[in-house]
Amino acid sequence: MKKFEFSLSKLKDYRERVLDTEKNTLSVMRRELAVMYEELEALYKLIEQKSDELLKTMSEGTTPQEISIKRRFISVKQQEVVFQNQRIERQQKLIEKQLGLVVEKTKDVKILERLEENKREEYRVAEVKEHELFIEEFVNNTTIRNGS
Hints:
This protein is mainly α. 92% of the residues lie in helices and 0% in strands. The chain is built from 2 helices and no strands. The two termini are 31 Å apart.
């Protein structure tokens, strides 16, 4: 009997490559999200630091202009926090969409893997039958030769 060959192996290989590409894309997107969170955390720390500096400057006494400048800086950084949170939200939505795509591609590959397993099992059953028939024929031929 000839060696087992899955007729849809090229399609399966292609879908596996597509799945790997989609997983890599998801991984990159998650790393980008992690960087965004790090940037957000840095903004929070900077705002806290500048707020502490502002309080210290105000308690020590300073000019209204200097206080205004420091407040404006903090305000700008707070606005950056808002923008960064919006970027994070958009990235999370993109990740959810990409994750859905990865799940879909994984299902496609699993279907082909199950089909291949079924075909391989059918091949094994046919191979066993072929061996049984060969043995049966051999025994019959041997019996006929010895009986004559």
